[in-house]
Amino acid sequence: MWLPCGRASRRVVSSFSRRVFRSYFHVEGRRKFNVAAFMPEAAGIQGLSDRSTLQEFSVSNGESFWAAAARHRLSWISPFHTAQDCDLSRGRIKWFEGGKLNVSVNCLDRHVHTCPEKVALIWERDEPGSEVEVTYRQLLEMTCRLGNLLRRRGVKKGDCVTIYMPPCPLAVASMLACARIGAAHNVVFAGFSAEALAERIRDAHSSTVITVNQGVRGGKVIELKKTVDTAVDSCPMVQQVLVAMRTENPVAMTARDVDMEEEMLKEDVVCEPAVMDSEDVLFLLYTSGSTGKPKGLVHTQAGYLLYAALTHRYVFSYHDGDVFGCVADIGWITGHSYSVYGPLANGGTTVLFESTPIYPDPGRYWEMVQRLKINQFYGAPTAIRLLLKYGDQWVHKYDRSTLKTLGSVGEPINTEAWEWYHRVVGDGRCPVVDTWWQTETGGICISPRPSDPDAEIVPGMAMRPFFGIKPVLMDTEGKVLTSNNTSGALCISQPWPGMARTIHNNHQRYIETYCQPYPGTVRCVQGQTCFFVRPQSLNPFVLCQQVTSLLAMAHIVLRRAVTGLGHFSWSFSQFVHRLPKTRSGKIMRRVLRKVVERDLNGLGDLSTLDDPAAVQEIIQGHRELRGQQQQQQQQP
After folding, report:
1. How many domains does the structure of the chain reveal?
2. Which of 26, 193, 205, 349 has a 20 to 30 Å separation from 620 between CA atoms?
3. Of 274, 291, 314, which residue constitutes the final position of a domain?
4. Distance CA 610, CA 439 (A)
5. Interval 395-448: pLDDT, tens
6. Is the bond into 360 cis (omega within 30 degrees of 0)?
7. Strands 281-287 and 295-300
8. Is residue 429 domain-resident?
9. What is the CATH number of the domain that holds 231?
10. Is 69 within the bounds of a domain?
11. AMP-dependent synthetase/ligase domain spans which residues (predicted)?
12. How far apart are the C-alpha atoms of 374 and 322, rounded to whole Å?
């Protein structure tokens, strides 16, 4: 199965000379390797002398490795009998067959039994200093009440509930309530238009939608209930809309609307968890498709939860008592895996960030780090570059001594931003884990950590595969490329538990997109660069990232995006006032690529664009420049 990371933009070349940072964080890393202390899941594996042999074992004996991890990390109702049954060429992926469990029990009940008053969620509301803490006991009670309410109102095992909410405890409880009763959830980013929301509701066949009256972000009130009302007008399958109150402002309620919080109070705090097979659907999450129709990627119970938990624990060196600060919205896979499921499966304390990086000022992140005593911070390069522009004083104003690990996610981080993040935000002592992964992978696949404590970290490089991940570069004929200074498609050559199982209602599209281009591997499909280190080299880098970093050094270039375009140079440059970005701030590079390829019919899904007019401006400017070029060529 292949997960393409683009085309010409995946060109791997020798890196420019750059400073290489070394990390010396744990004294025990220099002592004899103790596999049980480092990774209890692997304690029973013989012959492991260091982390590299553990990594090798996880790849060469993947079935045994993941079976040991699943038995140790997850709580099972019935044990599995077959760890893996996969055929990537046919798009068949099954993990932990025969096993039965409940995800909400793994995220809540087992922690309530040992530490009921431990804080599970810290809701960092829009106004700084107004955070709300929710313990594991409180979150379990909230989840059970909502699960009972959904059952009473006819939601059954196998149904799909659409959730259109900002990051808040009730949104997490809604996800876990679905998991508790065996329903799948479909979380839609609460910034999408009514049209985009309606398309996802229809494709998921949701008869139930959960939302709030209004959202609050960056000091502004967002009319979420009105967006839902508009969306469901074109969704005849929707029978009920459960509405919670984020603000005190009343909203119009119709016969299909339900006061969720009022009805939850009528329910019992005990909800019998459904017994789920390992491969039952846990959730759908839609990602923009290049063909114009969003893909509803399907993630299942045991494999996804295990992978989210392990990557959360080992990539970020998360330990009991830490406060994990992932600032991604729950509408994205990052929020699913590292704001909700990963931290809660590990019994951790996780932050739900409702605001923006610059509200009420550019010190918001770092004031939050100081106030909440955050230990791991995980954010997007877009925000880091934005904050860099405001200067160091907003960082130095606050105490960040609790920080132990800094993470980057969502797109490549250029060297200048990486170094500022490491030097200024992390005081030069926190490792920066530049993570590569995507909705299809379920969790982080390539990252500088885990590794030996003194292992090199190269700015702007994801570097090392996670346990059980075997990345390869493939040429156009499907052959594995082994040398440096080469081009190819990034694929993953063997299955792992966290990978998406199918595209909802369209398994053939799943096979054609991921499995057929490079049989026997998984092709990466997100338009995001990935830089990883071959075992014998620390040199590979991506050319487009180098160009992006150079542009970042020119202060007149406020926003930049580089995209691959075949093996030829272009004879003119186009300057634009703004780039096409999603509502989360990510540049839609595939749109730029389609414009320069003059494939305007292949722009794909544009529903996530913050301002569609930006695309039209670029198209018009490109036409004018091409016209000028043609006139010049015709002159004698």
Report:
1. 3
2. 193
3. 274
4. 20
5. 999 999 999 999 999 988 999 999 999 999 999 999 999 999 999 999 999 999
6. yes
7. antiparallel
8. yes
9. 3.40.50.980
10. yes
11. 109-496
12. 7
